[in-house]
Design goal:
Elements: H1 11-17, E1 20-25, E2 28-34, H2 35-40, H3 45-52, E3 103-106, E4 109-111, H4 124-128, H5 134-147, E5 153-167, E6 175-190, E7 194-198, H6 205-212, E8 220-225, E9 228-229, H7 235-241, E10 245-248, H8 262-273, H9 278-291, H10 308-320, E11 326-330, H11 338-355, E12 358-363, H12 366-372, E13 375-380, E14 383-389, H13 390-395, H14 400-407, H15 414-418, H16 450-454, E15 460-463, E16 466-468, H17 483-492
Parallel strand pairs: 7-12, 7-13, 10-11, 11-12
Antiparallel strand pairs: 1-2, 2-4, 3-4, 5-6, 5-8, 8-9, 13-14, 14-16, 15-16
Length: 500
């Protein structure tokens, strides 16, 4: 019998679990209605644009996401008129001088807008479909065409594992075991490709990302970038190699020193690497700010003076400073609200095309990964359990864990979200200190058998480039005689089979 107020920017969670929705903008309520009414008949232009900005599983990766133009208003300054007017497609002169009040448009449906959705004929659908962003569309299409060709891998991981000692507590506690964060991971990423790494929190994704950028060293195995084994490099050689490896952090505020101005933050990589004169660095920093869509005067401001999306742009600019070959983006948009998230995702794609970047995108948001990634690896308790093209993972799922993750994605549609059925990931992830024998997922899998308890499933091929480790898969693997046919077919049709 308890009431609940759920505060979130995840519209899929709202669609599946709320009875009534209140939409806020700039400290004000702009729309309020029953959940089904709001999703079926949204009336405020901000609500409409908010829902259009969300990456979804059926969104074509060739088409950029819709993003709301401009930035939210500065709440420290007095606002005149409707606060959403500078970003609104329905804006009229009266909106800039008079602030609308919350009024009923239907029974129980309130909105604060002089010109609600449907009262003015505007071609919003073409904006959502990306037809107003021809440059962005071209950038995405160029990326798709160039990343589909075969090339030598830029990054290669060969049987990489990472273990952490576990003590009994205290500074002088005795070692009582080890935590297996990553175990025997092998994969390769080609130049210009975006590889998505997904899985639950604690599965080892971030640990793998830190090893790839040489912030942590593997316990065993080899990590090579451009053919160079990172583990064999000396201190000076490793520092030079880091020009090619950059990390984009999850929290855009915690990753920036609050005591340093933006200009100093962006100048630091050049100083560490000993690149450029003072004038050259100043020029490079201005170019970086322009590339990520920040004003030139940002150099004199501190991180707390920027919004979350702007701070992530600063983080991206810092990652780009040394013109790296590979950027590891660890949950790059999870801390951002929906409208800003689409801007950052589109920016990442545009910069990838402009600089021939290779991305490793780490996320638990499968809809974001679907939009960005060419290939995807699914991790569970330190191991890769499925790997393949984005279409393979989402449309021809093999592993029950992958199917459970996909079924758990909140969909911003109350009818679809509440009618969900099928397999979800049940229970809690086991401790990596004492993982289950055999298949590590068996304790949470509805298809588990005695075989799963006794034997570790190997990665086997289900299609060309599509591998999974499961004794009881959702699809049958290809037979030994079919492997060569599948490889040739994939090659002739132009599909990506670099992982083979």
């Amino acid at each position: 019998g308890m009431a609940m107020i759920l505060i979130t920017h995840d519209m899929g969670v709202i669609a599946g679990r709320s009875d009534k929705v209140v939409v806020m903008y700039a400290g004000q309520v702009v729309e309020q209605a029953e959940t089904f009414e709001l999703f079926d008949h949204r009336r405020h232009p901000y609500t409409e644009a908010l829902l259009a900005s969300i990456p979804q599983l059926d969104h074509s990766p060739r088409r950029p996401l819709y993003s709301i133009p401009g930035l939210p208003p500065d709440l420290t300054k007095e606002m005149v008129g409707c606060p959403f007017a500078p970003r609104c497609r329905n804006v009229q002169p009266s909106c800039r001088t008079t602030s609308p009040t919350l009024q009923g448009v239907e029974d129980g449906h309130l909105t604060a807008c002089f010109f609600p959705v449907g009262t003015i004929a505007t071609d919003f659908a073409s904006q959502v479909n990306g037809q107003s962003g021809a440059v962005e569309v071209a950038a995405v299409e160029n990326h798709v065409s160039t990343s589909s060709g075969n090339s030598a891998p830029l990054l290669r991981l060969d049987q990489v594992s990472k273990e952490f000692d576990v003590s009994s507590g205290g500074a002088f506690g005795r070692k009582r075991g080890f935590l297996s964060a990553v175990e025997n991971v092998s994969l390769s990423i080609a130049k210009g490709e975006t590889f998505g790494l997904v899985g639950e929190s604690g599965c080892g994704k971030s640990t793998l990302g830190r090893m790839i950028t040489a912030l942590d060293l593997p316990t065993k195995g080899q990590i090579s970038v451009g053919g160079r084994d990172l583990g064999s490099l000396g201190r000076r050689e490793l520092r030079l190699a880091r020009r090619d490896l950059q990390l984009m952090f999850q929290d855009p505020y915690a990753s920036l020193d609050p005591r340093m101005r933006v200009g100093t933050i962006l100048r630091e990589p050049y100083a560490i690497q000993g690149l450029g004169s003072r004038d050259e660095r100043r020029t490079w920093i201005q170019e970086l700010l322009g590339e990520v869509g920040l004003p030139a005067n940002a150099v004199d401001r501190y991180p707390h003076e920027f919004s979350g999306g702007q701070r992530q742009r600063i983080g991206l600019a810092r990652a780009l400073a040394l013109r790296p070959k590979l950027i590891v983006a660890d949950e790059p948009v999870s801390a951002l609200d929906v409208s800003v998230r689409s801007q950052i995702l589109n920016l990442m794609k545009r910069l990838q095309n402009a600089h021939e970047l290779t991305y490793l995108v780490i996320s638990h948001d499968l809809s974001v990964v679907r939009y960005l990634a060419d290939r995807i690896g699914v991790m569970y308790l330190g191991q890769i359990v499925e790997i393949g093209s984005a279409d393979d993972i989402y449309e021809r799922t093999v592993h029950p864990y992958t199917a459970g993750l996909l079924n758990s994605i909140p969909i911003p549609n109350p009818r679809i979200e509440r009618a969900k059925h099928g397999t979800t990931v049940r229970g809690e992830i086991p401790s990596p200190i004492n993982p289950p024998s055999g298949c590590r997922f068996r304790t949470r899998c509805s298809r588990a058998s005695e075989l799963c308890e006794q034997q570790v499933p190997p990665l086997v091929s289900f299609d060309a480039g599509h591998l999974a480790a499961c004794h009881h898969p959702l699809r049958e693997p290809i037979g030994p005689g079919e492997t060569e046919v599948a490889i040739r077919s994939a090659t002739y049709s132009g599909e990506n089979c670099r992982s083979l």
